[in-house]
Amino acid sequence: MEKISVFLDDYRKAPDGYVLAETMDECISLLYSFDIEHLSLDHDLLHKTRNGFMLVQLMIKEKLFAKRITIHSANSVGGKAMYNLLKQAQRDLILSDSTIVSLRPLPLHFFPANVMKHYLEVI
Predict the structure, then answer these.
(1) Which intervals hold domain Cyclic-phosphate processing Receiver (predicted)?
(2) CATH number, domain at 91?
(3) How many domains, in total, are found in the chain?
(4) Helix, strand, or coil here: 8?
């Protein structure tokens, strides 16, 4: 299966080397179709109820994961909820401990170089 990295966001552009998914449904399709190296998730999407939190719930239910998952949402409450749900899945042995889960909020209008370094790291 082909390996890709996915950036879920309906507002920001994807970093170089990432496939942009603008909706939860696009992201789900990619999770089913590809081996995901790095999945970077936003919480707030155009469709208010089909957001990043709902995606994480579905990922856990269907056991659809990436090797590395980053929550980049600027929504601090929603982003922390997504992060906590993934960490709970690790404690419950649903998500492997080898999966790196990180919370790294990105600003909406500007990507500082040191923040983008996280997207260039190969783990």
Answers:
(1) 4-88
(2) 3.40.50.2300
(3) 1
(4) strand
- The strand pair at 35-41 and 100-103 is best described as unpaired
Alpha-carbon distances, residue 103 vs 1, 18, 45, 70 (angstroms): 27, 18, 18, 6
Look-up of token digits 């260039």:
120
Residues 50-76: tens digit of each pLDDT:
999 999 999 999 999 999 999 999 999
Q: What phi and psi values does residue 7 have, to the nearest 5 degrees?
A: -120, 105
C-alpha 53/C-alpha 41 separation (Å) is 9
CB 58 within 8 A of CB 32: no
Q: Considering the entire predicted model, what is its pTM?
A: 0.88
Q: For 12-43, what is each residue's pLDDT tens digit?
A: 999 999 999 999 999 999 999 999 999 999 99
